[in-house]
Design goal:
DNAligase_N, binds zinc ion, binds nicotinamide-adenine-dinucleotide, D-amino Acid Aminotransferase, Chain A, domain 1, Helix Hairpins, alpha+beta, 20 strands, EC 6.5.1.2, DNA ligase, five-stranded mixed β-sheet, 25 helices, metal-binding, manganese, OB fold (Dihydrolipoamide Acetyltransferase, E2P), five-stranded antiparallel β-sheet
Length: 709
């Protein structure tokens, strides 16, 4: 579609336009500017919607789009029908057949503050001649939109938004989303066929896990769950799609046909009723999150209140959508070719900022990887101050063309670690300097190596102080052995003083010597001692994770802990045996097998055991009684007594597994308050046992073996 040369020209053009906008340059050539803006926006739409790999930040894109709109409003005679302001962006790729939407799938108009919302409400009231309007407010899910057609209760077609008029037919990929029912009882309401719309997304924790894996390999993480979701949805191989853990919220009915002789039920007279209907039929819809209010002030209050909850939600949202609740009124208000007039997006504050790159430091990690870390002038983004940002590896620095002294665009989306989107090269004044990569380890001065095909430089000296210290810090960290009183600074301090020289050293600290140190009271020493003592009984998977074997994250650590009776069993395992375990590929298997072949590592493990640490699998501990081995669990709704993560850990400690959705593989569904579609779905599968929180606690407490019922 675009050649490399054209792409480069268009990027250059985008940057020129942004510079002109920033410097408020007066426009010499209006036609040229309009034409440039349109070409740039159309190109970036393609990068964003078709490639799922934007090159501009949303913030920059939005600035260009707003500029085009402003120029067109001032010069209405210059509006062309193919302008991006007049239609939905082209979003069809080549991998799927194109299908027509029954009703156009539009974009939304954006608002950013109370004033915008008041304006919109005023227009609505003027047009409808009503004094007060009923609105339904719901989250604006940050994913990729889909359209689903159900005929005679059966999901017959799934499609992407595409260019709004036609989209890509991705039915087989939709089948991979476990929260989308393939059959739903619309006929119970007299509905023969229906088109419904929603958003496919990736939950934050799934996204985080996928990114952790990337970071563990020193790859730059994916920018946000949205790009991940839209990319995953449009993969050619449905089996790959199934692995991405996609989820979907359905939030709109666009079209329906009643069965002959049937009249419309009240469920489809207002938007909020429809959302409830979706939930009742087993879809995930924002029925719980939505709020129906009268008048715009209540809308403003709710969006501001909801924004505070943004980070507590399991999925990403980038704002709220406000819809006129009554369908008849929606019809009267109508739509433009770009968006419906009866809906409005309220966008939350951008989580981006610009800052200056002051210097780059090189940190040596526990596996010897040398990571460049950017030090920027601290800026507040989304409630935290960001001053230090990992640049992952040399390739990232090269690709982003970073220089010391550059102005950089920084993003921090939700829980995602902050990252540098790009340098604003146009703002250079010639004083910027290249970033120089060290040839020797900044800590032990050994020469650095970079294996063929990798982008990470490494110090391969196993006794490199930086690595030894980082391994200990990782070992005591929260998700590993969780020795809280022995944080990063104490590890560094004790190591420097020669009180602790390696991981077994943690369990051999001479407390008499510690007592003579300044700054350690009796109480804090007792606490430290008992925290160290307690860590000895941590479950095996935490110890395995704590060892910091390359590529072994928390999930793999659990797999390994469940696969052995004793950690040293792995001494005798071949790579083939490891490969047979779930989710362990050749790279991971190679790394594990290498770890257990090193004499020093075996000696360390033996020493840890003799110091009293638990190297036995909890699976083995529970083999007689109370074991949940082979049983699958899922939690839904809000638990009152337990934190969800603690409850899940209780299951896993007894050998049970947590599934991500309801299927016939599920044995127990534990139901908290406000349980939704999962419960409905589980009720239809009679092999699933449904338990309350109390019943679950009894099950965990009971010592008798549980069998599959
Ligand atoms: N960085 C780039 O190069 C680039 C390029 C193109 C677009 N963008 C970004 O995308 C935005 C425009 O994208 P868009 O046209 O998809 O609009 P949008 O994302 O601003 O809003 C419209 C979309 O919101 C979604 N949505 C989520 N929850 C919804 C709900 N409850 N009800 C109704 N709709 C809901 C729907 O998918 C709908 O299509 C721009 O503002 C920009 O930030 C960025
Ligand atoms: Zn070193």
């Amino acid at each position: 579609m675009y050649t490399k040369e054209i792409e480069i020209t268009l990027l250059q053009l985008a940057k020129d336009l942004l510079r002109k906008l920033q410097q408020k340059e007066s426009i010499q050539d209006l036609d040229g500017t309009l034409e440039g803006l349109r070409r740039v926006i159309i190109y970036n739409d393609w990068r964003y919607y078709v490639q799922s790999d934007p090159v501009l930040s949303d913030y920059e894109y939005d600035q260009l789009f707003a500029w085009l709109k402003e120029l067109e409003t001032a010069n209405p005679d210059k509006i062309s029908a193919d302008s991006p302001t007049q239609r939905v962006a082209q979003g069809n790729g080549k991998n799927f057949p194109t299908v027509q939407h029954l009703v156009p799938m539009l974009s939304l108009e954006n608002s950013y503050n109370a004033e915008d919302l008041n304006d919109w409400d005023r227009k609505n009231r003027e047009q409808s001649k009503l004094e007060e309007i009923e609105y339904c407010i719901e989250p604006k899910f940050d994913g990729a939109s889909i359209s689903l057609i159900f005929e005679n209760d059966i999901l017959s077609r799934g499609a992407t938004r595409g260019d709004g008029v036609s989209g890509e037919e991705i039915t087989r990929n939709i089948y991979q989303i476990s929260s989308v029912p393939k059959k739903a009882d619309f006929s119970k309401y007299g509905i023969q066929s229906i088109e419904i719309r929603g958003e496919v997304l990736i939950n934050k924790d799934t996204f985080k896990k996928q990114n952790e894996q990337r970071v563990a390999e020193n790859l730059q993480p994916l920018a946000n769950p949205r790009n991940a979701a839209s990319g995953s949805l449009r993969m050619v191989d449905p089996r790959e799609v199934a692995k991405r853990g996609l989820d979907a919220f359905l939030y709109h009915m666009s079209y329906h046909v009643m069965e002959p002789g049937k009249t419309e039920p009240k469920e489809i007279t207002t938007h909020s009723n429809t959302l409830q209907l979706f939930a009742d039929l087993g879809f995930r819809s924002p029925a719980k999150e939505m709020k129906v209010v009268k008048g715009i002030q209540a809308v403003i209050d709710y969006v501001l209140e909801f924004e505070k909850e943004r980070d507590n939600l399991p999925y990403e949202i980038d704002g709220m959508v406000i819809k006129v609740n009554d369908y008849e009124l929606q019809d009267r208000l109508g739509m433009t070719t770009h968006h419906p007039r009866w809906a409005m997006a309220y966008k939350f504050k951008a989580r981006q900022a610009t800052s200056k790159l002051r210097k780059v430091e090189f940190q040596v990690g526990r596996t010897g990887s040398v990571t460049p870390v950017a030090k920027i002038d601290p800026v507040p983004i989304g409630g935290v101050t960001v001053g230090s940002i990992s640049l992952f590896n040399e390739d990232v620095v090269r690709e982003k063309d970073l220089k010391i002294g550059d102005t950089v665009l920084v993003e921090r989306a939700g829980d995602v670690i902050p990252y540098i989107v790009k340098s604003l090269a146009d703002m250079r004044d010639g004083s910027e300097e290249d970033i120089k990569f060290p040839t020797h380890c900044p800590v032990c001065n050994d020469p650095l190596f970079k294996p063929e095909g990798e982008s990470v430089w490494r110090c391969v000296n196993l006794n490199c102080e930086a690595q030894v210290v980082e391994r200990m810090i990782h070992f005591v960290s929260k998700d590993a052995m969780d020795i809280r009183s022995l944080g990063e600074s104490n590890v560094k301090k004790f190591y420097a003083l020669g009180l602790m020289k390696d991981i077994p050293g943690i369990y051999k600290i001479d407390f008499a010597k510690l007592e003579q140190l300044e700054g350690f009271g009796k109480k804090s020493l007792t606490n430290l001692q008992s925290a160290i003592e307690q860590s000895k009984t941590q479950p095996l998977h935490r110890l395995i994770f704590g060892l910091g074997v390359r590529y072994v994250g928390e999930t793999t650590a659990k797999t390994l802990a469940n696969a052995c009776n004793h950690l040293l069993d792995f001494k005798g395992w071949t790579e083939e045996q490891l490969l047979a375990l779930e989710d362990i590929g050749p790279k991971v298997a190679g790394s594990i097998s290498q770890f257990f072949q090193l004499h020093d590592n075996i000696q360390m493990l033996e020493e840890l055991e003799s110091l009293g640490l638990n190297l036995k699998s909890n699976k083995a501990d529970h083999s007689s009684g109370g074991s949940l081995n082979g049983l699958n669990f899922l939690f839904t709704g809000t638990l009152n007594k337990l934190k969800r993560s603690d409850a899940e850990e209780m299951v896993e400690q007894q050998g049970g597994k947590i599934l991500s959705g309801v299927s016939s593989k599920l044995n127990f569904l534990i139901v908290g308050d406000d349980a939704g579609s999962k419960l409905e779905k589980a009720k239809k599968i009679n092999t699933i046992r449904i338990l309350s929180e109390d019943e679950f606690l009894q099950l965990i407490a009971s010592q008798t073996p549980v069998s599959e019922s």
